Every structure is written in structure tokens, then in C-alpha cells.
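#lab-general

N.A. 3:47 PM
ok so I finally got the sequence cleaned up, no stray characters, all 709 residues accounted for. can someone with queue access submit it? mine expired

B.Y. 3:52 PM
send it over

N.A. 3:53 PM
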Amino acid sequence: MKAIQKILSFFFPSKGSLLPCAIVGTSSGLFAFMSLMQRHFLSKRYLAYSLLISLVVTLLAGWLWKRFLSGMFHLLSKNLRRLAVVFSAVLTIILLANTRLQPLYYLLPDTTLEIRIPIGEIPEGDESVRMLWIDTGQGYVHYTYMDIRGQWERVQKNIVFAPNQEIRISWRGKVGTLAETAFRMTPYDQPVYVSWNGEEREYNLNKPEEPNVIIRDKFQIPILNLIPFILSFLITNGSIIFALLLALSAWQPRQRLSGKPKQAAWMRYLLPMMILWTFTWLVFWPGIMTNDSMALWEQNLQGQYSDWQSAIYAILLAGLIKVWYSPAVVVLAQMLAFALLVAWGLGMLEQAGSPRLALWSISLLFALSPLNNLYVITLWRDIPYALAFLWFTLLVLKVFLSQGKAVRGWTWLWLGVAGFLIAVLRQNGMPVVAVVLIILPVIYRKYWKELCGSLLAAGLLFTFTKGPLYNWVGVDREIRGQSNLILLHHIAAHLDAKTPLEEEERTYIESFLPISDWSYYCCYVGTISYDPDFARNEFLASSSANRQLALDLFLRDPLVDVRHAMCAGELAWRFENNQCYMKSTHGFNSWKPERISWIIPNEVGLHEDSKLPGLTRPYVDALRTFGFRDDYLAVYLRPAFYLYLSAFAVMAAAVRFRDLRAWLVYLPLLLQSGVLLLVSYAPAVRYQYSAHLVGLFLLSLLFLPKKTE
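B.Y. 4:20 PM
back already:
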């Protein structure tokens, strides 16, 4: 008995701590079992593993709390303790919302799946039907467990069926909350019949707006079957996040021992980025150009500018192509601005005492990021927007690190310039800049004059650009699209939900397209806006009527708009278990193995001219290996992943510095994600590329030491 008490006293600070630690340990074992080890049979070995995990985590939790975490916790003020607990709980709930809930597998009923695919003659040059996966909600079904009748072959982990036959596939097993059957889109009409438990439904794979046709079937799972997973997830992950926050609050990264770095020494951080990005550029010389890129290029050739794709960006391009008529000059400017900006930010952190090894690691992450390598050589206005957004965030970080003193130099003006660029390059940037520049003088009241100067500078530059400059250049302001497309998407959601309509409203809607022909897809408005029968131009010219209709429908049934926004804007908040595909993960015109193209066909003399042509295909294959798979990015490349990673890094800095003003650094990104959640009408990654940049850079806050006297 004494031996047991001695062991318990070694691991646990008191008898009262034994129960909380046991709860954490049991939850960890259950979570590991349900997430990783559930099978379609009861495995005694996996059950033993989960019990072992429970015991080890229980002892480890007690030992860590006794030896380290308890002291760290009591060093924090009451407000910071509460904030750390609340933050851990909120972040864990958000992560749960990004997770597919797992039921207890053994209690689920058996389910049967049957798929029938009548395949005829395939048009020349097109591929036959390709089945990508079957996901039961408990994992993917391996093809060896399916009964497949017909001719087929395995191609790149998919199944491709031969033409001129009827394929029949059957499978029997247990299914979770959501099952998916996925096929590659076909450019020709191709029916597929999917039957769960005898209820057959017909689908057509000819959906040009969707690169992959994912057939989803939901199954009702009793809530009691989900509670064990929910509780084990919340307790396990909440405890991990809380423990990490406490550890980071007390950890003091080793500061530089030498004096201040030499002037402009920060430029050495350019090297990894410039070397790797230049290599990518040579492979896809002179740069990547899409339809949007070409539209802006042609505006300069014609001398007719519109604000649809940001006239200021087109005007900047006009100046560059006068120097060198090639996309290469734009890429060069983007690459230099990008690398200089990141290197300058890392130099600022080096002056604050961050270890150089950590800063070199961040530089290397920027250099290696597949998104950065492709976007830096792509001519999209979203790239300079993201760079301006990163610059703005770094300036706010500089204000925080200096406790406001930095604005007495030129920082107040650069804040205004960066804010102006954000507001003028994308319409969703204006509210972000306005809120941040209004809040800063309130928080740093001692420097309110300089910070009000930032707001004034941004406002004056914006007014001058949208007014006298655009008038002088002759920018066409009549073309309006984005706000109306957002309204169109919400109106379509109400039509799909059968929200009651007034007779006048029905007549107005049908003046553009018969209601029966409105094809609502929550992820993308293009199913309607690009319908050849939809009177697109007439709709875009009816802004006031569209706003009134959307408002009336919202007041009639606001939950429809809430559900629509959570789906349409999921890229802003969800990084896992996404239901939408992802647009603009790259700008390739075609990246099929047999035809890799990165500049769309044009009549303005621009063409592809790879300096390393033998590497184009291996490079694209490598991209797929690292997470670029047919518009479905790997988790580590999705914008929302960096939204939450940034939040954790900023929270760690707040508790380490004992200064809640650290959250000002996160505010621009949080506001942007909130705005895009509300106004998204296409799941385009490039719209939220700034989240990727800010998230990568704010990782450096984990290594920022607290200043010592």
C-alpha cells in the first residue's frame, strides 16, 4: 500500500488531482481508439493499446502538472489564466467543428451500397469514367473489398472503367454520418446510379463547374453514438492546447548574445526565397497567366480600364510592361517585393532578440511553400493584395513590439500606405483597414495623433485614387459585379430553400431566368451566373433592386442566409472535412500530364518559354505529391489552418509578454476572414492567400523572447 502511495505521490501533486488526470488519460485513450483504431471487428490488441494510452497519459498529465504546469499557471494573473482557459476551450470547439464526428463503429447497423454505371461510346480524346473514392465516414473502402463487375484498371490510385459496358459495384458494411462516392467530372453526359439500402438515385457526371463530382449521402446517427467522441475530443485536445500555452508562457527562447545586427543585415534572409522561387520561375517562364491576368494585360494594350479587376493594379502593370513587354517583369517585381518584405520582417524580429535559427527556418518555410512558389510567379491582383496585407500586419507587429513608439518615425505613414493598398486592391479590404486604423489610436492613446495620421493618409490616398486619378485615366466605374454576385448567391439559396415569394419578386427573378432553371450550389455562384440563359448583364445592372430583394428574403428567413454563408465561406473557417472544392489553387491553364500549359492562348504575343522544359512535368508531379490534388489542397495549405495557427501563436505571445495588445497583430487577419465568410461566392484560395502568408510569419512569435531588464 505504501509503495502505491509513493508511486502516486511521485506522479500526482495531491489526491484531488488524480481524478482530473484520470479523466484526461481516459479521454485520450478513447479518442485515439475512435480516431485511429476502430475496425469492423472488435480487436483486443487495439483495445489494449487504448488502455495503455489511457494509463500513460494519466501518469504523464499528473507528472507534468506537478513538475511544471502548476507553477506556470500560478505565475499568470487571474485575467490571463481565465483567458488561457477560455481560448483553449474555444479553439478546441472550433477544431471539433472542423472534424468529422466518429460514432462507435460496433453499434452501427450494416448498410449496402450498389452502384450502376452504363457507359457508352466515349468521345475521342476524353477519358472514360474514373471513380476516385468511396468514403464510408469510417474510412475509404479499398477496391479489394468491393464486388466490381465489368472491365476496369487501376490508374493513379483511382479506378477507370472501360467504355461500352455496364459496370456494377456492390459493397456491404457500416457507414458513419456522411458517405461519399466520388467520380471525375466528364465533359459528356454520363449517368451514374447510386443506391444505399435499396434507394437508388441518378446523377450526371457532366458538371463542368465541378472538377470532381462528389455524391454525398447523409445518415442519421443517434446522438448517444457521437457523445463519446465529442467528449474525448474536447477533453484531450483542450488539455493539450492549454498545456502548450502554459509551457510557451514560461519558455524564454535564447536571445542573441552579440550586439545589434549590422544595418541591412536582414537582407541575407532573402537568399532561400530568391533561390527557390527563381528555380520555379525558370521552369514556368515567363510566368503564369490566367483569364483574369490576360484581361488586365489587354486593358493596358487598349488603354481602357475598368475597376472590375482593380484598375490600380492594371495601371501599375502598364508602367511595368513599358519597361519590358513580358510577364517576366511583373514576376520579377513581385518576387523582389515579396522576399524583401519577409526578410525585413524577420530582421525586425532579430532586432527584438529572436534566435537566428528560428528566423532562418521561417525564411525556408516561405521559400519551400508550394503556394508561394506558384503564386509569386502568377499575375493576379490577389498577390500584391496579399503582400500589402502582410506588410500591414508586420507594421502593426512593429507598433506592438515598440509599445507604440515606432509610429514616431515613418511607421505611421507606411501604415497608411499599406492600408490604402489593401483597400484599393480588393473591396473586402476596406472594412479591415478602417477598423484596425480606428482601433489603434484608441489602444495607443499616447500616440493618437500619429495613428490618426495613418488613417488620414490611407483615406486621402484612397480618395485621390478613386477620384482624380481614375478620372484622369478614364476608368470605367459602371461595371459592377462582385457585390451583385454575392446577392445573386443569397437569392439562389432562398429559391433552393423554397422561401415564399411575392408575385412581384417572382416576376422580377424570372426576368433573368425561370425559377425552375436556377441551379443553386452553395460553394459557387457560377452555376447560375455563367448559365448561358441567365441575363447576367441585366442582373449586374440592377444593384438597388437586387439589394432590396436579398434584404427582404433575409428578413423572411435569416437561417437560410446563415446556412448559406457557412457553406459558401467555409474556406475562411474550415480546413478539414470541407464540402466544397477549392478554386485557384494554381493558375495553370492545364496541368494534365500530357499537356502542361501555364499561359492561356492569346493574341497579344505572350507564350510559354520554359528555360528548364524537362522539369515541367516532374515539377507538377511533385506538387501533387505535396498536396495539390485536383483542386483539393492538403490541410497544411488551406487558409483556415493558418487562421487558427496564427491565433495560437498570438495567444502564446500574449501570455509570454503579459500583454493582451498582442491580439492587435491578429486583428487584420481575423477581420478579413470574417468579411470573406460573409461575402464569399466562390471557394477561391487566392482570395485568402494573405492568411497563408500571415500565418507562416506569425509562427515566428513562438520564438520571440520576452525582454529582460
